[in-house]
Amino acid sequence: MPGSFIYWLWSLETILEVAVVVCALAKHSFRRYLCLNLYMLFSLVVSVGRYQALIRFGLQSPQYAYFYFYSDAVLTIFLYVALITLYVHVFDEMETGKYVRLFAVLLLAGTALFSYLVVQQSQHRMLTHFFFELSQNLYFVGLVLTYVLWGAILKLRETRTRLIQLVLSLGVYFSAFAATFALRNMFPNFQSVGYIVPVFACLLPLAWAYAFWRLPEDARMAPSRLAVVPR
């Protein structure tokens, strides 16, 4: 039963990822949110690849473990880039895009260097440990950056409903995965964590599909519905 539940969630996540891209194309928003949609497409490819590795080598095989951790690190980098593009959307009127991109590159390089320093003493499967550490650290960095972005949205009185939906859903996603990594580190034998991850993995594409399909690009949220932030 647990295995069937995981496979069912896995299939649901794949369907929702396709739905995000289809909704973005149908609403002519694919190019405007290009990195978000490319992340969903790559996540779809990774899901298919993981399934093939699972069928061919088995869940406990080292081949599946390597593919999972390497692909997860690349996916996290894609999601980090997608988050930075949301920063560009929020600050587009201030013409600070090049500074945001420069900061993002430096922060990514710093996170990679920190991850390398953490695992450099490991003599066994150092590359695997590096990708795992990088992915874990990027989730925490993404969590902090998302809440910083939300603070900027409140400060700037941003009212674009779709953009707010995309940022908030990303904040929930990063929070959930950061908490999952923390639980795994504190309680290595806590097996239920493995069932939490697929559930939250479905929520992000569901929220983004809803944002593209139901929220027009020109829709605005009433300023009174945002938290009042003194200037």
Q: Given the structure, what is the number of helices?
A: 7
Helix content: over 70%
Structural class: mainly alpha
- Radius of gyration using CA atoms only: 18 Å
Largest sheet data: none
**Please, how many domains?**
1
Question: Which overall shape is indicated by the principal axes computed on the Cα atoms?
Answer: globular
Strand content bin: under 5%
Describe, in plain words, how this protein is organized in 3D.
The chain is mostly helical and 231 residues long. It has a single domain, classed as Rhopdopsin 7-helix transmembrane proteins. The protein has helices at 2-26, 34-57, 62-90, 97-119, 126-155, 161-186, 193-214. Helix 1 packs parallel to helix 7 (193-214), helix 3 (62-90) runs antiparallel to helix 4 (97-119) and helix 3 (62-90) packs parallel to helix 5 (126-155). The chain starts with a helix and ends in a 17-residue tail after the last helix. The model has no long low-confidence stretch (mean pLDDT 81).
What key phrases describe this protein's structure?
single chain, 231 residues, mainly alpha, Rhopdopsin 7-helix transmembrane proteins, 77% helix, globular
Report a brief summary of the structure.
By secondary structure, the protein is mostly helical. The protein is 77% helix and 0% strand.
